[in-house]
Each structure stands twice: as structure tokens, then as C-alpha cells.
Specification:
- The protein has 292 residues and is of the alpha/beta class.
- It contains ten helices and 15 strands.
- A six-stranded mixed beta sheet has the order 6-13-11-9-7-8.
- α2 links the parallel β2 and β3.
- α8 packs parallel to α9 and α9 runs parallel beside α10.
Length: 292
């Protein structure tokens, strides 16, 4: 663990970041510092990437070591927390909780066996009971939220718009069941839906199911009723590359509800890959596009 030093002008209470994989934990840390806060990251071992955490005060701990995680955050004086980054959900048997971790798991209770949204809601509740305030990544990193409209030069044609509209309906039904946040639709057919495997694995599976003709569309939305303080839909350069490799024509995400990792590079990457990248309002999108 590195020493935490509070620079002049920083708030005394560091922003705690419980970090999974990808670059977003570092983006949240950078945004926190830019806002005048010290930061402290707890990287989840086997999920967080050490090189991403390296520039910031941090410690790596097992996901099951909840007691050690809470103790580290308290030692650093953290009260506000952000949960961010990819985490592959472990089995209960693999958690090997420490003593306090077992106590936390008992308080989470049956939510351990529910969907991701139900589990995260329980985790947020328990963190609140432990004296922490959980913030949404978007509250710190508002500039990373997908805007409405095109992020690159390419736009969906009428057939792709129909696939987007179909994908919105499917993703909303999927999210209402707390299963996943996305799906792939091609020519009106649902090639794949996202479950525990994650977006990239879903895209690889969709590639093997593609039909002849124009490629499909990836649609990712916030789950209906989801607590937006955790697990917002996220896409990054890897998603763009995986979508192109799967033969898709484009990606549609919920505007104002999807985090864009490496946002400054995404539009250019989509153009280079030959696919569109579109932020949509699910409530107003139709097969003819967003209503005025």
C-alpha cells in the first residue's frame, strides 16, 4: 500500500474507489483529483489491473476480504465511495470471506443468489449501514456519460434503426428480469443476449450466429429501476473492436446512462472500424430514429 498524502487544496476525506477491471477506475481517480480530492483505490485482486492503479494510492485485496476492504477504507479516512470497473461475479464457494466478510455476507443474505442488480443494491445498502456513502461514477465522471446522437461520422440506415428499436425492447425486458444490459439484433432476429458472460463474450458468440447480409447491432441500456450508483452499462475501445470483429454495423447505447471508457478515442475508433456509435433515448426511439 502506498502512503496517502493530502495536497494543498484537497479535501481531507479521500474519495474511496473500489476498483474492478478496465481503465474507468483511473478515470474516476483522475476526475476526483481534478475536483480537489485525494483518492484511495481498493483494487479487487484478479479483477483490477495493477498498471491502472499504479499512479494512485491503492491496495489490492480479495473480493471476499470484505473486512480488510472496509478497514483499509476507514484507515485512509474515506467516507464517499465509488464502485467501478469490470468484476466477474465469483461463486459463493470461491469467496473465502474473512471474519468480517462473513458478517457482511450474512447481512447481504439471499441477494447473493439474485441478479447483479439485486446483489449490488444489497451491497450498497450494507456499505451505507457501515457508514459509507456510495456515489455513482457519473457523479464524479459526468463527462464520461454517453451523449445523445452520433459519436462518430457513420450513421445507422433504416434497417439498422429497426434493429435498434427491436434491441431496445429486448434489452428492457432482459433488464427487467435482472439478467443483463444488452443484446445483439440482426435483421430483426435476436442473435444473443447478455448474461453473466459479459459483453465481449456475448459478441464473440453472436459472431458465430450471424446471418448473411447486413450485420447486426449491439444495444446496451440501463436496467429498468436499476440503482445508477453501480454497474452502469459501459463500453470502451475493446467493445468497439469486438463489435467490428463480430461483423456488426454499429452500437447503440443509452444516452445519459452509459459510461464511455476512453471517450475521447471512441468516435475515431468506431469510424476506423467502419461502425456507427449512437447514443439513444430508449423512451423516444422508434424504427425511424429518435422523435423530435
Amino acid at each position: 500500500m502506498r502512503d496517502t498524502i493530502t495536497a494543498p487544496g484537497e479535501r481531507a476525506d479521500p474519495l474511496g474507489i473500489i476498483a474492478g477491471g478496465g481503465t474507468l477506475p483511473a478515470q474516476v481517480a483522475a476526475a476526483g483529483r481534478a475536483a480537489g480530492r485525494a483518492v484511495f483505490l481498493v483494487g479487487l485482486h484478479g479483477h483490477a489491473e495493477p498498471a491502472v492503479l499504479a499512479p494512485y494510492p491503492h491496495v489490492l485485496l480479495r473480493i471476499g476480504a470484505a473486512g480488510a476492504i472496509l478497514a483499509a477504507l476507514r484507515e485512509q479516512g474515506c467516507r464517499d465511495l465509488v464502485l467501478i470497473g469490470r468484476v466477474r461475479r465469483p461463486s459463493v464457494a470461491a469467496l473465502r470471506p474473512d471474519r468480517d466478510g462473513a458478517r457482511v455476507l450474512a447481512r447481504i443474505g439471499r441477494a447473493m443468489f439474485s441478479g447483479d442488480d439485486g446483489l449490488l443494491a444489497a451491497v450498497i445498502r450494507v456499505l451505507g449501514e457501515e457508514g459509507f456513502r456510495v456515489l455513482g461514477a457519473h457523479e464524479v465522471l459526468g463527462a464520461a456519460l454517453a451523449p445523445a446522437g452520433l459519436l462518430g461520422r457513420l450513421a445507422p440506415d433504416a434497417a439498422a434503426q429497426m434493429d435498434i428499436a427491436r434491441g431496445i425492447a429486448v434489452a428492457q425486458a432482459l433488464g427487467a428480469a435482472d439478467v443483463g444490459q444488452g443484446c445483439v439484433v440482426q435483421q430483426g432476429l435476436v442473435l444473443a443476449v447478455e448474461a453473466i458472460e459479459g459483453t465481449d463474450a456475448m459478441l464473440a458468440r453472436a459472431a458465430s450466429l450471424a446471418r448473411p447480409g447486413p450485420g447486426g447491432v449491439l444495444v446496451k441500456l440501463v436496467k429498468p429501476g436499476q440503482d445508477r450508483r453501480a454497474d452502469l452499462p459501459t463500453i470502451g475501445l475493446e467493445t468497439v473492436r469486438a463489435a467490428a470483429a463480430a461483423g456488426l454495423r454499429g452500437i447503440a447505447v443509452e444516452a445519459g446512462g452509459t459510461l464511455l471508457a476512453e471517450r475521447a478515442s471512441l468516435g475515431g475508433a468506431a469510424d476506423e472500424a467502419g461502425i456507427f456509435l449512437l447514443g439513444v433515448d430508449p423512451a423516444s426511439f422508434t424504427a425511424n430514429g429518435d422523435r423530435p
